Amino acid sequence: MEPGMEPAALQLSESVRDFVAGGIGGACGVIAGQPLDTIRIRQQQPGYSGGAALLARSIVAVEGLRSLFRGMGFPLCTAAMQNAVVFQSYGIAARHLTGGQQGSLSLLQVTCAGCFAGAVQTAVIVPVDLLKIRMQLQTAVRGAPGYIGPLALLGSVLRAEGLRGLYRGTTITCIRDLPSHGVYFAVYEITRELLEPGSRANGSSNAAALWAAGGIAGSVSWLSVYPFDVVKTRVQAAAAAQSPYRGWVDCARQSLANEGRDVFFKGLSTTLARAFLVNGAIFSAYELAHKCLL
Predict the structure, then answer these.
(1) Span 164-172, average pLDDT
(2) Closest Cα to residue 270, out of 232, 219, 208?
(3) pLDDT given for residue 251 in this prediction
(4) Residue 63 has what pLDDT?
(5) CA distances from 42 to 26, 35, 132 (A)
(6) What pLDDT does 102 receive?
(7) What gap in Å lies between CA 75 and CA 80, rounded to an integer?
(8) Contacts for 200 with CB less than 8 Å, ≥ 6 apart
(9) Residue 265 — very low, low, confident or very high, per pLDDT cuts 50/70/90?
(10) How many other β-carbons are positioned within 10 Å of the β-carbon of residue 10?
(11) What average pLDDT score do residues 52-67 get?
(12) Do 93 and 116 contact (CB within 8 A), yes or no?
């Protein structure tokens, strides 16, 4: 090396930065929202009609505080991958739509890139959600008879249903995630610009605005597809052989016939509260990590 020359700094591609920052954001989101997610999953099951606070007290009293975090291992281990895939897919689609040129995307382009990201992430999220849901629906505590740990549950599903069993609910998951991610990214961009004018073009430096924009985007995106999530949860709650449903359409039909229209909004308030916390954390961590990786 000649005198006065310094080694060049390691330059990460935009795609790699999206991937790494998305993974960091995803892990932060899981930790922030797992207790409310456990309550949401229980509320969505047939036969439950109580409020979130009552259910939370019941879970803690009977199963212990740790039960609110049951099933977190699967999403925490895979949240980095899931959100990394989402943000990387979004970035790839965004760069394709703009021809690789710098500058802000139109809201239509943002929505299209978000839908693409939602479709891509389905392959990652389906088995994770299925295992998480079945862990969360257990009432036996760790060490007690009948308790099934995460690895044992994974083995049980593979032995009984094969790889196909892990992907039960793929169609309804894609129906939920494709449009919701379009809404997710579009609402985030709109809200961030409203809270901090000029941030779409120049970046954001206001942590509170990032959190609020991410939280609002998450809440609105969940609200836009929530009935599909209720159906997805019920479909994935049991193996095909034990399930009362022949598929997601049959699940929706039976749920409506047996419980009325309100069934499709069970656990909605809990979900929206969780979505605000989780997605505020995801976008805040993502934006911070993305800047640090420059």
Answers:
(1) 95
(2) 219
(3) 97
(4) 83
(5) 23, 11, 12
(6) 59
(7) 9
(8) 104, 189, 192, 193
(9) very high
(10) 6
(11) 82
(12) yes
* HSE value, Cβ hemisphere, 13 Å, CA-based, for 154: 9
Give the architecture (CATH level 2) of 14-292.
Alpha/alpha barrel (1.50)
Place of tokens 């991410």: 214
Instruction: Please report where in the chains the tokens 């309100």 appear, as a residue.
Output: 262
Q: Which H helix or E strand runs over 228? A: helix 207-236
Q: Which helix (H) or strand (E) holds 284?
A: helix 268-292
Distances, alpha carbon 196 to alpha carbons 132, 192, 193, 204, 219, in Å? 37, 6, 5, 7, 19
Tally the residues of the chain.
294
Condensed to tens digits (0 to 9), the pLDDT of residues 92-110 reads: 999 999 887 656 789 999 9
Tokens of 104: 């802000």
DSSP, collapsed to helix, strand or coil, labels residue 204 as coil
| Domain chopping of the chain, boundaries | 14-292
Q: What is the mean pLDDT of the chain?
A: 87
| Widest pairwise Cα distance in the chain | 80
Q: Are 41 and 133 in contact (CB under 8 A)?
A: yes
pLDDT, residue 6, reads 43
DSSP per-residue letters across 39-105: HHHHHTSTT----HHHHHHHHHHHH-GGGGGTT-HHHHHHHHHHHHHHHHHHHHHHHHHTTT--SPP
Region of residue 187 (phi > 0: left; psi between -120 and 50: alpha; otherwise: beta)? alpha
Q: Please report the beta strands in the chain, taking only residues with DSSP state E, as ranges in sequence order.
A: none
Q: Which two tokens stand for residue 17?
A: 């930065």
